Amino acid sequence: MNAETRSKPAPETKAIGTDVTQAFEDFHRTFASFRDTNDERLDQIETRLSADVVTEEKLARIDRALDDNKRRLDSMLIEKSRPQIGRSEAASADEREHKLAFTSYMRSGEAMGLKGLEATALSAGSGPDGGYLVPVPAEREILLRMADYSPIRTIASVRQISGAQLRKAFSFNGPASGWVAETDPRPQSATQQIADMHFPAFELYAMPAATQTLLDDSVVDIEQWIGEEISLAFATQEGTAFVNGTGINQPQGFMSVPNVAQASWAWGSLGYQVTGVSAAWPAANPSDVVIDLIYALKAGYRQKARFVMNRRTLSQVRTFKTSTGEYLWAPPSTIGGATTLMNFPMTEAEDMPDIAANSLSIAFGDFERGYLIVDRLGIRVLRDPYSAKPYVLFYSTKRVGGGVQDFDAIKLLKFGTA
Which of 70, 156, 213, 384 has the fewest C-beta atoms under 10 angstroms from its C-beta? Predict the structure, then answer.
């Protein structure tokens, strides 16, 4: 924030309040300021063929303030709805026993209680992986927290598995169907095409450190502490992998599968539309390419479709208007609602590429049908008091995989000519 802004507060830089309602109102006021300033910029371009430098700088400043206000509002909403790890009031006797044994292991390294529990539980999540399972209620709440930080986990399908991978058959031209009489046989269609798809679960790890003083403090909820530490670390890593992962020792991101022009689309690749300009939007009617992207998706997928892009691409999209002067981007209409582009919800994913020559910077589709995340049951923790004395390390692992399951459900926008 510069000296001019501090000495003369403007609507766009008003400090966001601690109350969610106040923060929501501040966000809308900031957008109103953004809209007015962009209208002024467009009027200058129309009358002078270029915008005033001061207006451009003001718009950029408000755009940054709008991003900042949105992040703060999102953070407040997450904090308000965030579950308290390990604080379940309805825990069963077995769950309470597991919690006590786990806490004892974390604080002192005493593992006999956990060994006995896992030997008798025959849990699907148990296995020769090393370490001990985080209590089930805490695991469930860690995954809920991860959804807050990992944007693709929030919008994709999520399945839990007990083995090393999930295999599924997928009919990419639809299941065999037809009309028959009550007693007629139901033969399988000869034209039905089925893909055998598999989604292996890869090991994701985090290694938070604690002092012995922290572990000895009885007021500190150790289960809560480890859950908070690993949930953010896991979410950051998997958020990147779900977008750009190579599929080698990590999930395969939807941006790393082959892509082809929509006119040549075939199963196994994602189709894309082009802007017609390298590294840029068309100079005239840039929103037309967004409309082309929307209608490249089949009607059945558009019902639950959404846009995915990073905030730098979003900052350009915010300035687009219809021929009648309405903005294509709209702030959420209710607290906790989603921002929209042409009435479709938007998800910000910072791992999406910036706009550049031939970049695929915007994705649009039904990600619930298009992308699958698999979580193997069980989050494990191994206490290590030796490797980083005087600190105690907690080697924490979970197994997660992911990949595109319906290649027709997601389309991309390419900033190029072909």
Answer: 213
Dihedral sign, Cα of residue 21, residue 24, residue 30, residue 36: negative
Long-range pairs for 207-213: beta carbons < 8 A, 24 or more residues apart: 207/393, 207/394, 207/395, 207/396, 208/233, 208/393, 208/394, 208/396, 209/388, 209/391, 209/392, 209/393, 209/394, 210/391, 210/392, 210/394, 211/390, 211/391, 211/392, 212/390, 212/392
Lowest mean pLDDT among 119-128, 264-273, 304-313, 363-372: 119-128
- Which residues does 209 contact at the CB level (< 8 Å), separation at least 6? 388, 391, 392, 393, 394
Contact 3, 28 (CB under 8 A): no
d(CA 151, CA 231): 14
What's the burial of 130, exposed, middle or buried (CB within 10 Å: 0-12/13-18/19+)? exposed
Q: List residues bridging with 199 in a β-sheet.
A: 166
CATH number for the segment(s) 93-170+195-240+372-401:
3.30.2400
pTM as predicted: 0.79
What CA–CA distance (Å, rounded) separates 292 from 304?
A: 17
Give the distance from CA 166 to its chain's centroid.
21
Q: Quickly tell me which residue has 């507060």 as its tokens.
A: 9
Select the more confidently predicted residue: 114 or 291.
Answer: 291
* Structure-model confidence comparison of residues 318 and 117, the more confident one: 318
The 8-class DSSP code of residue 245 comes to -
Question: Three-class SS string for 145-214?
Answer: HHHHHCHHHHHCEEEEECCCEEEEEEECCCCCCCCCCCCCCCCCCCCCCEEEEEEECEEEEECCEECHHH
Q: With contact defined as beta carbons under 8 Å apart, do 361 and 413 qualify?
A: yes
pLDDT band at 72 (very low <50, low <70, confident <90, very high): confident
In the chain, domain spans: 3-81, 93-170+195-240+372-401, 254-370+407-414
pLDDT tens digits, one per residue of 30-67: 888 888 888 888 788 777 777 788 888 888 888 888 88
Q: In CATH terms, is domain 254-370+407-414 a member of 2.60.120?
A: no
**Smallest Cα–Cα separation from 236: which of 153, 130, 328?**
153
**Burial (CB count within 10 angstroms: exposed 0-12, middle 13-18, buried 19+), residue 90:** exposed
| CA atoms of 345 and 335, how far apart (whole Å) | 14
Burial per residue of 224-255, b for 16 or more beta-carbon CB atoms within 10 angstroms, e otherwise:
ebbbbbbbbbbbbbbbbbbbbbebeebbbbbb
Distance CA 384, CA 387 (A): 7
CA within 13 Å, CB half, 222: 27
